[in-house]
Each structure stands twice: as C-alpha cells, then as structure tokens.
Specification:
single chain; mainly alpha
C-alpha cells in the first residue's frame, strides 16, 4: 500500500511538471510571436541595435529560463496540490467546498482550454 501512494505521488508531480512545461511553451509563444512579427517587419528599426546572433542568444537564454521556471513551478505546485487535494480526500473532506481546490480546478481548465485552442490555430 505504501508503494502505491509513493508511485501515485511521483506520477502526480511528474504530470503537473509536464503541464507547467506546456504552459511555459504557450507563454514562450505568446512572448515570441509579437517580437518576431516586428523583427521580420523591419529588423533595423526594431532590433534595438542587436544583431541576429544577439537575438538568437537572447532567445536561447530566455527559453532556458522559462523551461527552468516551469519545471520548478511544476514540482512545487505538484507537491502543494497533492497535499491539499489527496490528503484532504483521505480526511473525507468535501473538495468542491474547498475554495483553493475549486479555484485551482478552474484555472487548470482555462489553461488547458487555451492550449487546445492554440494547438488548432
């Protein structure tokens, strides 16, 4: 029984981390799209004096930063939500009355909805 709980918790944290990585990819796209639009429109006036290799280096740094923040946020919120949701379930609490659970569920629903919509656009 103990191993079942440990594997379930590890799977929950892993899937939460994957969710935050996907949200990070969406955030990356939302930040990069306007920048690429203006740079391809007129590179000389919108490049802020940076060369193309400078922009690529900046892109790599911020991509790595977004990925690291997404991984750490996924682990943190995976641990936090697991404790709030499943430990509360073990104590036989009604989760729909639990304000934090309901807010988290609504936020996750809208994040997934935006991800699905942008996948088909």
């Amino acid at each position: 029984m103990y191993y079942k709980k440990v594997w379930f918790k590890a799977l929950y944290i892993f899937l939460t981390t994957i969710l935050f990585i996907l949200v990070g990819i969406l955030l990356h796209w939302l930040l990069e799209y306007p920048v690429l639009y203006f740079l391809t429109k007129d590179f000389n006036s919108y490049s802020l004096g940076m060369s193309l290799s400078g922009w690529l280096g900046l892109h790599n740094i911020f991509s790595l930063l977004i990925l690291l923040v997404a991984i750490f946020a996924g682990i943190y919120f995976g641990l936090d939500w697991y404790d709030k949701i499943y430990l509360a379930k073990m104590k036989k609490l009604d989760l729909l009355k639990h304000k934090n659970f309901f807010i988290s569920a609504v936020i996750l629903f809208f994040i997934l909805l935006v991800a699905v919509i942008t996948a088909f656009v």
